[in-house]
């Protein structure tokens, strides 16, 4: 199932061509997708592996977990959105590919973590 999702994700780029790859909307969508899948994976017991983002995912702000992470990601999107026109055209596809690349891995972590959690639950019920 994960391979199918990954292939569908990759086909987004190949089927729609460079116009999609150069879109600031794609950048924003990928940041939102990364935030959503990161939070889901974390809630299931996964861990943020990006050392830059780890403190934002793990820490609470004003007593609310993930607010730092969501705020930082939102600021990244706003910054790129406002300056997208001044970014060299040949860099935009690379920025979007990098921006979107965590999502398939997060989906895999979610899948794997569900299996781990199910096995733990069965083990607890057995004991």
**Residue windows where pLDDT falls under 50 for at least 5 positions:** none
Structural class: mainly alpha
Helix content: over 70%
The number of distinct helices, counting runs of at least 4 residues, comes to 7
Secondary-structure element string: HHHHEEHHH
Instruction: Give the strand order, joined by hyphens, for the main sheet.
Output: 1-2
What do the pLDDT scores average to?
86
Number of domains: 1
How many DSSP-defined strands?
Answer: 2
Query: Terminal Cα separation, in Å?
Result: 31 Å
Q: Can you summarize the main beta sheet?
A: 2 strands, antiparallel
Shape: elongated
Quaternary organization: single chain
Taking all Cα atoms into account, the compactness measure Rg is 17 Å
What is the beta-strand fraction? under 5%
Write the layout of secondary structure elements.
Layout: H1 2-16, H2 18-21, H3 24-44, H4 54-58, E1 60-61, E2 64-65, H5 67-83, H6 92-100, H7 102-126
Question: How would you describe what is shown here?
Answer:
The protein is mainly α and 127 residues long. It has one domain. Helix content is 76%, strand content 3%. It is built from seven helices and two strands. Strands 1-2 form a two-stranded antiparallel ribbon. Helix 1 runs antiparallel to helix 7, helix 3 packs antiparallel against helix 5 and helix 3 runs parallel beside helix 6. The longest helix has 25 residues. The radius of gyration is 17 Å and the shape is elongated. The protein starts with a helix and ends with a helix.
């Amino acid at each position: 199932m994960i391979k199918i999702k990954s292939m569908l994700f990759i086909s987004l780029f190949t089927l729609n061509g460079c116009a999609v790859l150069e879109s600031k909307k794609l950048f924003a969508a990928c940041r939102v997708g990364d935030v959503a899948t990161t939070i889901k994976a974390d809630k299931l017991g996964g861990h943020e592996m990006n050392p830059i983002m780890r403190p934002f995912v793990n820490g609470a702000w004003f007593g609310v977990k993930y607010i730092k992470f969501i705020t930082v990601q939102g600021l990244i999107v706003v910054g790129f959105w406002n300056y997208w026109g001044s970014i060299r055209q040949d860099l935009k596809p690379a920025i979007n590919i990098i921006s979107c690349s965590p999502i398939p891995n997060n989906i895999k972590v979610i899948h794997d973590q569900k299996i781990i959690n199910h096995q733990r639950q069965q083990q607890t019920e057995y004991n």
